[in-house]
Design a protein that fits this description.
The two termini are about 30 Å apart. This protein is about 35% helix and about 15% strand. It is built from 13 helices and 15 strands. Helix 3 packs antiparallel against helix 10, helix 7 runs parallel beside helix 8 and helix 12 crosses helix 13. It is globular and about 55 Å long. The chain is α/β, with parallel strands linked by helices. The protein has a seven-stranded mixed sheet with strand order 4-10-9-8-7-5-6, sandwiched between helices. Strands 1-2-3-13 form a four-stranded mixed sheet. The chain has a four-stranded antiparallel sheet with strand order 11-12-15-14, with helices on one face.
């Protein structure tokens, strides 16, 4: 069946609210490559929106899931438990930032992890308020949308949202927002909207994902920790997109000298299988009463097996070092285009969590049209790119860290040609 026929079936059978970027349909994929139903090959620099740090169908992941599938696929952990859940929880408790005793609960999606982190924080503090930040993305559920600091397309037509959610300003030097400006915005919330004693948690992404791949300054993270400690507020680090080697460290918070109270994980945690987690201080995680946490599919044994294999692959294949190497190579290429491409306003990122931001030539005005043209030209050449940012003027790069050198070089050539075109 042709892509055109499939697109018509899609239009007839699925709602327009499920936006789809590509006009072709995947037939098979391996590592950093996807082949469509007509046999055309694409290099995947989207990674299922940051899910495939270890690539499509990594051998270790595929084998681990197949082995588990031969045992059982589901019991619901809250009904009949299994050791795999405990084993992966122990691994994450030991690996995540902070030397304190920790506990882990598993879920299915990133939004579900965020929802449960909020529940845990409220149970532990007895307070309702949550502070998030402009440009942050925390999911598509009602609470996730309330926390998310970007209206289009995530919030349009879906309100009202849960109450007691407030937004500070995220520090962004490129857009004229200093660390002091951001901290002042939180202090203003305490003066104008909610007293600090009613705030349960402050949630932020160490590197904003959908917001544009802006890294939180170290000074700012320390200030957030100070505010939390001063007022008895919990710090939640949303590592859903930034975790699992993407930034050149296992977790983005490993770049900082303070630790969060709670961490949310998902995306590349299980190499393409639906799994998320909340990891936190043991006494905080124990605040909800028995039965208050869980979910029918939470902690799927197939996804847990995949996650164990992902961690092994990252460690054995030295993907932290590879993330830094590939990220440096990409930044060098992008920076080399600045002289002939006045639209390039910034090239930034930690490890392989890299972005390029485009403004209109000679101005500070975001250029979403130029950004879209780059994405379109790349796709025509067989390179899948994602855009992001509040103004839609950022291209983000989420290629598998396992990508072969020759394919990475080929992708960079396609990228350069798309930007020059």
């Amino acid at each position: 069946m042709s892509p055109q026929e499939l697109m018509q079936r899609k239009a007839n059978a699925t709602p327009r609210g499920v936006g789809v970027m590509c006009s072709f349909f995947a037939e098979r994929a391996k590592n950093a490559e996807i082949w469509d139903t007509e046999g055309k090959r694409y290099i995947d620099f989207a990674g299922g929106i940051g899910v495939l740090n270890t690539g499509h169908l990594h051998d270790k992941v595929q084998a681990a899931v197949a082995e588990q599938l031969n045992k059982f696929s589901h019991t619901c952990y809250q009904v009949v438990p299994y050791e795999l859940y405990i084993e992966l929880a122990e691994k994450l408790n030991a690996m995540t930032p902070g030397s304190h005793a920790k506990k882990t609960a598993f879920y299915t999606t990133g939004a579900e992890a965020v929802e449960n982190a909020v529940k845990i924080a409220r149970a532990a503090t007895g307070r309702p308020g949550i502070i998030a930040f402009g440009g942050g993305f925390h999911g598509r559920t009602l609470m996730g949308m309330a926390l998310t600091g970007k209206v289009a397309p995530y919030k349009i037509g879906f309100g009202p949202f849960p109450s007691d959610v407030y937004h500070g300003v995220f520090p962004n030097e490129l857009h004229g927002v200093s660390v002091a400006d951001s901290i002042a915005s939180i202090e203003k919330l305490f003066k104008y909207d909610i007293e600090a004693s009613r705030v349960a948690a402050i949630i932020f992404e160490p590197v904003q994902g959908e917001g544009g791949f802006y890294s939180a300054p170290a000074e700012w993270v320390r200030e957030i920790r100070r505010i939390c400690d001063q007022h008895g507020i919990l710090m939640i680090a949303d590592e859903v997109q930034a975790g699992f080697a993407r930034t050149g460290k296992f977790f983005a918070m490993d770049h900082y000298d303070v630790a969060p109270d709670l961490t949310t994980l998902a995306k590349s945690l299980a190499g393409g299988f639906p799994l998320s987690a909340v990891v936190g201080k043991a006494e905080i995680m124990d605040a909800p009463a028995p039965g208050g946490l869980g979910g029918t599919y939470a902690g799927s044994p197939l996804a847990l097996a995949a996650a164990k294999a992902v961690i092994d692959a990252i460690q054995e294949e030295k993907l932290l070092e590879r993330a830094n190497k590939l990220g440096s190579q990409l930044k060098e290429v992008l920076n080399g285009l600045k002289a002939d491409t006045p639209q390039i306003a910034d090239v930034r990122g930690l490890g392989a969590m890299i972005a390029v931001e485009f403004n209109k030539a000679g101005s500070h005005e975001p250029d979403a049209d130029f950004t879209k043209k780059v994405q379109t030209k790349a796709l025509e050449a067989g390179l899948i790119l994602l855009t992001c940012g509040v103004y839609g003027n950022v291209v983000r790069f989420l290629f598998p860290l396992t990508i072969e050198d020759a394919i990475f070089d080929e992708a960079l050539q396609k990228l350069v040609a798309a930007i020059k075109a």
